[in-house]
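Worked problem 6 (solution included).
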Amino acid sequence: MSNMKLSIKSNIHIKSFKSKITTTKRKEISPSFSYANLISNRSKFDDKEAYKISQIFSMLKSTKIIKLDLKNSKELTDKGLFWISESLRKLSSVHTLIINLAGCDRITNKGIDNLTKGAKRLRFLQKFHLNLQGCSQVDDDGLRHVRRDLQELAFLGDISMNLCGCYFISDEGIGIVTSFGRPFSMRSIHIEWSFLGNLTNNSTRKTTRGLKKFDFLENLSLRYHKCVGCETVDGNEGIKAFVQSFAKMNHLKRTNLDFEGCIRVGNSGVNCLCEALSRLSTLQIIQLSFASVYLITDEGLKAIHNFAKNPELKEISLNFSAIDEITDQGLINITDFLSHKSGLQKIGLNFSSCHQITDKGLIALAEALKKQTSLRSLTLAFESCWMVTDIGFGSINEALKDLKFLENVDFNYSRSEQLSNKFCESFTETLNNNLNETLKTIKLNLLHCTSICDKGLTSLSGGFKTCNSLQSIHLVFQGCSKITQISFTNLSESLKKSCHLENIDLDFSWCEDIRNEGLKSLSKSFERLHLLNKINLNLEGCSQITDSGLLNLKETLERKLLLKEANLLFTNSGITAQSFKDLIDCLKKMDSMQKLNFSCSFYDDE
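Solution. The predicted structure is:
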């Protein structure tokens, strides 16, 4: 079957369908496949295609996992979901059903009714994920259909619903969606209802009443992004009501609460939430986002110290980006918690666009990080913190020297106007002397850090060369106009020394001096990396790259038998359509390839 790719014996991956499935082709489909993954052809997937998919699913008698990615299938209607539902009725062995209908704006409540009637026949279903983002015709009645049928499933323990942009969902719908499932079986709930404008104060009570019954819940993830008018997410009193749902959650291990853009939350709301979470002694992972909540000040960040009471806490992620009132003192308040809570394994802090933060705040953070001797993953975002210099960023690099078990580093310092080659040199020194045996992932986002030139990148390249355990590298130097062919070639030469690399992600878009020689050197490094299975390469705006450079890349990639994913972005000013088409056609023919994204403005893939 030309449009079907079988990656391993027990899996079936279906890209799209353009012709009828004949009896002969059906024989190629094994009934023993345990995993079915459909990625639709967005522009052509309609009810007829859904019928063909239902024919295939009806033959997969032993399938345990089904993933349907139907995102932006504009021609799909309720009738198509009926055919898919009919095929689900025959698959009693399925335990995981993941369906993405984001952007399918012709789907109505009737389609949801059709779908869930089939899902309820999956009597062993344990995980149900449904993405309805942008399905604006779905309202409270659609959610009633989901609850009615999911209540039938005794083993269902993991529910995820994305309702972003379903504008007609009301307080009643929020109450419905937070009460899905049976109290004793439910272990994980993930719900997104961002951008819902019809919510009122009553949604607070509805949410609390629904969640209260899940005594054995282990994972709770709720995203309230700009829910205009909802007291639960916009006001301190609403948060006080909401946290009552935590009262009986004595098994909760992970919580992810996103209040981004909820503009009426203030310091007292943050304090109330942190106090409630600190009383949950089983919590191991806390993720909180108050991005763009401009009423929060340094005083509100003192509440984070409450988490020092959580005995099991291993991971914490905090997002206070784009809040103008946060200064160095707010960051110092966070470090007070870090100083009193040792043993953390993962830390993530986002203070991007907090323009009052200076070197003083980062130096305090660095001192607190030195005490986290068990730390394995560190993520820091200080994008557009214009007052921070090499001194502040360098103090973080210095702190890394004390973290002997660190495996993953993710730094976003983009648009930092005062960051220069000195930062690169201090980071390299840390790599060479302390982290070269433990570090597995390096992510550096230095977008538009225009003071960095060849000297800085060449220094970093020398550090990467010594990292013996490096598996994944992500570098963003977009718009760093002082980066030239010389340092890009040095980077390419250093990468081939990292024999364990599996993932390479390089963004050097609009570094206009990069030429064919650099791409040829990078291609040669790919040849030496025998474990490489994922490549992201963004060279948009590098207009001096021509067909010759693409030919070198093509000749290398067609020999990479393990390559599973490729994302390639080029500009069209230096290369021809035929050259780019040859490169893409080469990648499409690879048996191992599972995901391919590409962009060049003249190339239209039919």
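Discussion: Residues 156 and 218 are 14 Å apart (CA to CA).
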